[in-house]
Amino acid sequence: MKLNRKTILINALIVLTVLVHISLCGAPKGAQASAYPNEFEPPISTPLLKKANFKAPLMSAALREHLSHRRLRKSDFLELFKYGMYQLTRGETEQMFNFIDQNKDDMIDHSEWGAFVQLFILPFEACDMQHNYILEPKEFKVCFDKDPKTKLVTFRRRYNKDKYNLMMDVVSTRGRSVINFSDYLFLRKSLFGWQNCHSSNKYIALSQFKCAFRESLPQKYGLKYHYEKIYFVGKKLSNDRNLIQLDFITYLRTLHFAYLFSIIGLPHDTPVIEKSQFIKAIREDRVPMNMNEAEINIWYDLIDSTPFRINKIMNFDTFAFFYNYHRIFYKYNMERPLQISKDEVLKSMNDPFFPEEVLQALDVSTTQFTEPQYLEVSNIVQRKRLDEREFYIRSFLELPSASASPSPQNEKEEKVTKEKFRFKQGKYINLIIIIK
Question: The whole model's pTM is what?
Answer without folding.
Answer: 0.73
